[in-house]
């Protein structure tokens, strides 16, 4: 479903170095690593928001780097994304934010749009929040609205960038459980970046670990938890002593 | 390590970094320009969005521009009158000369420079803050080209309202100049209001400048906003760049259109 092959990306300095990974269809894939490891950049490369300088990113059999902006839009229509700081549109209400991707994809039946918005708000436990503006929501509520918007189009691939950043432990676990439930119900392929390792590993099927722009580990969640690689071991178990 | 890895890891010198940046900027600006043209012809507009932008660009700038152009009219007529009196003691063509200059060059260009500071800065700040909060990326993920959604309504509004604003503020400037001519040099209004030097070439050149400036300001400012990097510091930097680059674009277009106008109409 998602294939990344020898991808390089640099801004002032290289941020992705020769990254190769494969995410099978229907898999919930966790991308872990310390700060500035290149996780969010890789996620944006998967969405076609950034183009790698070398290597290829393939989704649905399409090579992202070879597509122009119009062709890329057709691929993006099959991808949902939750951004690290939610990226809700300030001037739109909660309902308008969730309905936005539906309207822009050409859905004009207002009754159907309203029904799908209500369904998403129920799924994220925010019924009755339709007319609220993002500015009046808490961090956890914004995150849930972001999840509702990312999943409203029933996309084949959903990308989550730090879905639990800045949330308390209980809300974090609820968010992770919600995302797992959503993924299982929709059968979508999910790539999730999170620093909340303990909770992330309760929901993932496979895990990749990045360090300094390179993918240093790739395997099942159980393999990550049992890894003897000193960096992976230290990071996954949150040990203070080690190479990091 | 492979040759690919070597070339990607190699630190870049300041000249290489600057050259790459200039090339990337030129490519980005060209991309924004092409996509603006494409979506203006093919895009779907939200109902009322262009009207809202016309209000933002036009109504909110009208007072500022009229006052500025009024003062400029007074200053120019006063200074021109003083200089003319040194050479020939005849001010009968003062109004006609000023009107030709106003229509052909000063009206559109000075008004556009003022618009670049007010409208250009606003466009860059609004789009730039959407970039740093990832709202522009979210637009792209929702199936929207940010140029279509954010730049094109401002582009259409700016093209329309620049013409309107130049006409209105030009009239204010001419009237203020007339009052100065009357009170300072005793040039009667009927002598001052003289269209004899104004020809078709002046009108076409002036109109072309209005349209070109009206197009350039939102495109250049939108490009500055869309290429914002970093946080609030980046938004500040993008806003400054929008004013500088829009003003530069106005001056360059002024030279270009004046040159072409001179060749075609003289």
Detail the topology: elements first, then pairings.
The complex is a heterodimer of chains A (244) and B (266).
Chain A lengths: L1 E9 L3 E10 L4 E5 L6 H8 L7 E6 L2 E2 L5 H8 L2 E4 L11 H11 L5 H14 L15 H13 L5 E5 L7 H18 L2 E5 L3 H4 L5 E6 L2 E7 H5 L4 H8 L7
Parallel strand pairs in A: 3-8, 3-9, 6-7, 7-8
Antiparallel strand pairs in A: 1-2, 1-4, 4-5, 9-10
Chain B lengths: L2 H7 L4 H29 L6 H39 L6 H39 L2 H7 L4 H40 L3 H4 L7 H27 L5 H34 L1
Helix pairs in contact in B: 2-6, 2-8, 3-4, 3-6, 4-6, 4-8, 4-9, 6-8, 8-9
What does this protein look like?
- The complex is a heterodimer of chains A (244) and B (266).
- With 244 residues, chain A is of the alpha/beta class.
- Chain A has a domain at 1-78 and 157-166 and 189-244: 3-Layer(aba) Sandwich (Rossmann fold), CATH 3.40.50.
- Chain A has helices at 39-46, 69-76, 94-104, 110-123, 139-151, 169-186, 197-200, 221-225, 230-237, and strands spanning 2-10, 14-23, 28-32, 54-59, 62-63, 79-82, 157-161, 189-193, 206-211, 214-220.
- The longest helix of chain A is centred in the last third of the chain and has 18 residues, at 169-186.
- Chain B is elongated and about 75 Å long.
- Chain A binds chain B through residues 6, 8, 10, 12-14, 17-18, 44, 47, 49, 53-54, 69, 73, 76-77, 79-81, 83-85, 87-90, 100-101, 104-105, 149, and chain B through 4-5, 8-9, 11, 17, 35, 133-135, 137-138, 140-145.
């Amino acid at each position: 479903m998602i294939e990344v092959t020898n991808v390089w990306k640099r801004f002032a300095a290289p941020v992705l170095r020769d990254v190769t990974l494969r995410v099978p269809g229907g898999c919930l894939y966790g991308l872990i690593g310390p700060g500035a490891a290149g996780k969010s950049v890789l996620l944006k490369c998967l969405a076609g928001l950034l183009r790698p300088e070398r290597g290829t990113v393939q989704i649905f059999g399409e090579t992202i780097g070879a597509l122009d902006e119009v062709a890329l839009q057709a691929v993006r229509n099959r991808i949902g994304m939750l951004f690290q700081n939610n990226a809700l549109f300030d001037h739109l209400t909660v309902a308008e934010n969730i309905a936005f991707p539906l309207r822009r994809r050409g859905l004009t039946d207002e009754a159907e749009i309203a029904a799908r918005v209500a369904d998403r708000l129920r799924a994220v436990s925010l019924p009755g929040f339709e007319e609220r503006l993002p500015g009046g929501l808490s961090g956890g509520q914004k995150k849930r609205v972001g999840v509702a918007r990312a999943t409203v189009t029933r996309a084949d691939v959903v990308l989550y960038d730090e879905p639990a950043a800045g949330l308390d432990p209980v809300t974090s676990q609820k968010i992770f459980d919600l995302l797992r439930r959503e993924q299982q119900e929709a059968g979508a392929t999910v790539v999730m970046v999170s620093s909340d390792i303990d909770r992330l590993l309760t929901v993932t099927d496979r895990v990749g670990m990045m360090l300094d722009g390179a993918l240093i580990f790739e395997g099942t969640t159980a393999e990550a938890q049992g890894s003897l690689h000193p960096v992976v071991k230290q990071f996954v178990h949150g040990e203070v002593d080690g190479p990091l | 390590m492979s040759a690919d890895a070597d070339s990607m890891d190699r630190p870049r010198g300041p000249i290489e970094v600057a050259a790459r940046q200039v090339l990337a900027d030129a490519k980005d600006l060209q991309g924004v320009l092409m996509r603006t043209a494409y979506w203006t012809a093919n895009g779907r507009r939200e109902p009322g969005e262009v009207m809202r932008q016309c209000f933002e660009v036009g109504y909110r700038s009208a007072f500022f521009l009229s006052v500025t152009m009024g003062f400029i009219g007074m200053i120019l007529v006063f200074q021109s009158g003083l200089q003319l009196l040194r050479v020939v003691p005849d001010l009968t063509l003062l109004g006609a000369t000023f009107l030709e200059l106003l229509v052909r060059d000063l009206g559109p260009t000075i008004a556009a420079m003022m618009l670049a500071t007010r409208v250009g800065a606003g466009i860059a700040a609004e789009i730039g803050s959407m970039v740093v909060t990832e709202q522009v990326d979210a637009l792209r993920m929702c199936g929207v080209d940010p140029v279509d959604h954010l730049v094109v309504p401002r582009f259409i509004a700016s093209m329309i309202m620049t013409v309107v604003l130049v006409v209105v503020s030009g009239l204010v400037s001419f009237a203020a100049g007339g009052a100065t001519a009357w009170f300072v040099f005793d040039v009667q209004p009927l002598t001052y209001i003289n269209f004899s030097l104004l020809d078709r070439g002046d009108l076409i050149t002036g109109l072309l400048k209005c349209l070109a400036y009206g197009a350039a300001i939102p495109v250049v400012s939108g490009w500055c906003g869309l290429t914002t990097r970093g946080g609030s510091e980046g938004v500040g930097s993008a806003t400054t760049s929008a004013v500088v680059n829009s003003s530069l674009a106005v001056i360059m277009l002024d030279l270009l259109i004046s040159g072409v106008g001179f060749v075609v109409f003289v």
